[in-house]
Amino acid sequence: MRDSFKTRQSLAVGSQSYEIYSLPALEGRDLGRLPFSLKILLENLLRFEDGINVTREDVEALLAWDAKAAPSYEIAFTPARVIMQDFTGVPVVVDLAAMREAMTRLGGDPDEINPLAPAELVIDHSVQVDEYGAADSLRKNNAIEFARNGERYSFLRWGQTAFSNFKVVPPNTGIVHQVNIEHLARVVFADDKNGKLRAYPDTLVGTDSHTTMVNGLGVLGWGVGGIEAEAAMLGQPVTMLIPQVIGFRLKGALPAGATATDLVLTVTEMLRKKGVVDKFVEFFGDGLAALPLADRATIANMSPEFGSTCAIFPIDEETLRYLELTGRSAEQRALVEAYAKAQGLWRTNGMREADYTDVLELDLATVEPSLAGPKRPQDRVPLRSSKEIYRKHLAKMAEERAQKNPGATGKAPAVSGGKSFEVADGAVLIAAITSCTNTSNPAVLVAAGLLARNARQRGLTAKPWVKTSLAPGSRVVTDYLQKAGLLTDLEAVGFYVVGYGCTTCIGNSGPLRPEISDAVKAGDVIATSVLSGNRNFEGRVHPEVKMNFLASPPLVVAYALAGTMDVDLASEPLGTGTNGKPVYLKDVWPSAQEIQQALAGSVNSSMFKSGYASVFAGDENWNAIAVPEGEVYQWDATSTYVRNPPYFDGMTMTPSAVADIRGARVLALL
User: Fold this and answer.
1) Please, what are the domains in the chain?
2) For 536-579, how does the pLDDT look when each residue is reduced to its tens digit (9 = 90+)?
3) Aconitase/3-isopropylmalate dehydratase large subunit alpha/beta/alpha domain: which residues (predicted)?
4) Where are the alpha helices (DSSP H) in 127-202?
């Protein structure tokens, strides 16, 4: 590398010395005006300046960034690592396996084919909620998952052992983005380069749009397609235009009763109205001091929903607190702090405001309890208006139903579990505590547990037509809910753990019970779902559910108790208690003090350390899988899924001469 700006320097951290590419060494440059995210890109260009992919002119272009100008200059960004999930990641591993076979066929060493950038794949997209509402739901869903995915899992287990620089987090562990922030993310990378320790920002691309969740830790990254991810794994840079950066100033603190979910739905609404597609969004302001890391991660997670490339937060004391809570070593935390401060990447209250393309502002004190729906995540609905908004949409949908099915009544009787009831328009058929967006946040999970406890004490439980589920994003969630004594309360009102994966959030809701499904069809019922996910597009959650509302985990529980969206939770009861009196949301909603007391007594660093100590090992189901041996994969010719792609068929060590293309036909004339 050229280092034409002479920025290669040493950074002492304790007894260790690290080689870094120092931003302050760019003397005479006003780096304070650059947003946090562009400073990370700047360091990346300095470190990879080779005169070919990255030139001195590229660095100068970034240094001269005009916040107001339309993007026009292309640079090459080289991420430190790649993260994947099992649906979009499998084709990437298939290609690596195909390269190994081709290498062997041509007389080379197949062991030369390995990811150059560290690559991690988390299996989370395959578990489905087939069973629910019982203590053995998790075991049964796991058994079904492994039966359905045996071939894929066998292939990934082979890859886990065959490739170096490639790790697999097995099924039944957690959701990729939550595992990333709780364990995989480094914030600052350290590696050995030519016998020298180097330190540089943790950056990544991922094969999932919600890769941006890690932006909450100050780690720059976003979702890409499989080809881009594969190229990054093989050491190739990602080409991009130097982006515009929208600043989002936060001030104040969230009021009592408002959750991180309410905050992210408010932010999503604001940024969708603003229009931030192809832009970076960067959060700043003294309000960050009152915003826990888990809340930041919740906001960063929904970057795809408000349309930005990323939604990043700077590194500060709260970042270090979270790293300590999640079991990162004292040495790693010291490196993060020293590096961030040395590079001007450390946030403090009252610091200079960077130049931004535009700035939005939100006073956290104005955030109120909210949902979003019924079809788009940016359509925020204040809880106080939820019944009104629901009825507005119902009226339109009922009118369309009357035209298509004049005999539909919008209701039908059903019998389930020995109970007779009516399934009617507005019925909540699915209530799911799901998605890394919210299950990564202990405060909202504990709030859901406390609400369940309060409801249980009053004799309330989910209505019999509601399919309930609790799908934590990591095993640590179960640990702290158990320690707080809240898991049994959630189970008592219907929310049993069904799996550790994306489940309902990606449409893996599983079937409704036949008797419920029959009633929906008989009455052409306009049914609803309430989930703590990040997307609610029509048809995504379940084909028999017409309206989908995003909500915080405690509100998911509340709507499961009420059993309908046709209710004003501010003035109408959730149900009737064992004493015969109505029970209202205000009667069971936990106070901020209750939540904090439960958090203080149940969430600690040892849980994360023990929970992730053997994160790549897997359970008995994973370890019972038969794994092909050898460094070259033995393809099954009868497989319809894991197939050897034809890219390398006919390849020789000496490329043949370029031949004319004959017999081709025009596909499109534009």
Assistant:
1) 78-190+202-239 (3.30.499.10), 370-611 (3.30.499.10)
2) 998 899 999 999 999 999 999 999 999 999 999 999 999 999 99
3) 65-563
4) 137-148, 150-162, 176-179
